[in-house]
Specification:
Number of domains: 3
Strand content: 15-25%
Radius of gyration: 30 Å
Shape: elongated
Helix content: 25-40%
Length: 373
């Protein structure tokens, strides 16, 4: 049962106390509101030999200031320095404890222990923003428990100390290097997406090709997002939009319209109260393929843009391009006619496979507030 409790509670079976020891509180002090779970603490004065530990009489320990993620060096663990750094003494007693049930045997047990546990290691994410004097870190290609899966993790880990020589790498040298190389060579999808969005939504993008400037920086391809397009938020302002819907049933029928409230309008189309062309049961449900923003509340501009987009889409179909890509490109063809408006096209992909999962989630999303399509 002790082994079972070791896995299920934060308090150790045996709590070892020593001067200068670093600990973490294991629970929130809901009575006095003095400390919170995981906050750091340092033992400066060892309780006397006559201290009544059997009855869990509280003893003094120094508590760290809020948001402290690492302890001071051993030479600074004294009353004067800790007080200057914002640490203060508090009393710690037994953790309230919660009854744990062993499912296999049905046995119920509770561990009574002081609400402390030794602070020995931490995670990469927990030390983001912290500069450490020394850092021992384990990275491995062969050990899944020590393998990194995102380039950002390696970047955070190796930037926690002022000098690279202050890092202690634990394990086989070749295995560590292979583990770092593997993760650093991975494509950081989220970082690439953010960089692309910043570049495309900037008035002065980093790169502009003279022959394709409009399509490059006026277009945001949401299909590059590192998560499902069904989770993409839709704009909720009333500045005005011209949009293109795609029939999720046929994946070929398209509709171009304009509105001041995109979320509400898409709901109307799927509820049968939108334009006449979208009311047929053969085409519903409708998914959002693309929309243009930047009209700044100018209804005349968006009505005019809607008509020009429709014209260019028909022209593309007549020339044999009936693809979604052709319909989206028709939108960018109209951009030069609407300067100096800074219009932006946001589209959700050009492959039919991008929309297959929308069929499953359509009914669920319709019951939500309309912030996803």
């Amino acid at each position: 049962m002790n082994s079972f409790l070791d896995r299920n509670v934060k308090e150790p079976r045996c709590l070892k106390l020593f001067i200068g020891g670093v600990y973490q509180f294991t629970y929130n002090d809901t009575q006095q509101h003095v400390f919170t779970q995981s906050r750091l603490a340092i033992l400066i004065d060892m309780p006397s030999a006559h201290h009544n530990f059997e009855n869990f009489v509280p003893f003094e320990i120094w508590m760290a200031p809020p948001a402290t993620k690492s302890p001071p060096p051993v030479s600074d663990r004294n009353h004067v320095t800790l007080h200057a750094l914002g640490w203060r003494p508090v009393k710690i007693g037994a953790c309230p404890g919660y009854t744990q049930t062993h499912e296999a045997s049905g046995t119920m047990a509770k561990r009574k222990q002081y609400g402390l546990r030794p602070f020995i290691v931490t995670t990469v994410h927990a030390i983001i923003g912290t500069t450490l004097r020394k850092l021992a870190i384990g990275v491995s290609r062969s050990n899944p428990d020590l393998s990194l899966w995102d380039p950002g993790m390696a970047q955070v880990a190796i930037s926690r100390t002022n000098k690279f020589s202050d890092m202690i790498w634990v394990g086989n040298k070749e295995d560590i290097l292979n583990g770092l190389i593997d993760v650093l060579l991975q494509d950081d999808i989220l970082a690439n997406y953010v960089d692309d969005m910043i570049d495309r939504l900037s008035i002065n993008p980093h790169e502009m090709r003279d022959n394709n400037a409009t399509e490059m920086w006026n277009t945001v391809a949401v299909r590059n997002a590192p998560y499902s397009i069904t989770r993409q938020p839709l704009p909720c302002d009333n500045s005005g939009f011209v949009y293109m819907l795609i029939s999720i049933k046929t994946l070929s029928t398209l509709y171009i319209g304009q509105t001041h409230d995109l979320v509400h309008r898409i709901r109307l189309h799927n509820d049968g109260f939108g334009a006449k062309q979208t009311r047929s049961i053969r085409d519903k449900p409708w998914g959002l393929l693309a929309y243009v923003c930047g009209f700044q509340g100018d209804k005349k501009a968006r009505v005019a843009f809607e008509k020009r987009w429709q014209v260019y889409a028909r022209l593309n179909r007549k020339t044999g391009d009936r693809s979604m890509h052709g319909a989206i490109r028709a939108c960018t063809q109209a951009f030069p006619e609407f300067l100096p408006l800074h219009l932006k096209l946001v589209h959700y992909g050009q492959a039919a496979a991008d929309y297959s999962e929308l069929i499953i989630e359509h009914e669920h999303n319709n019951r939500q507030s309309g912030h996803s399509h």
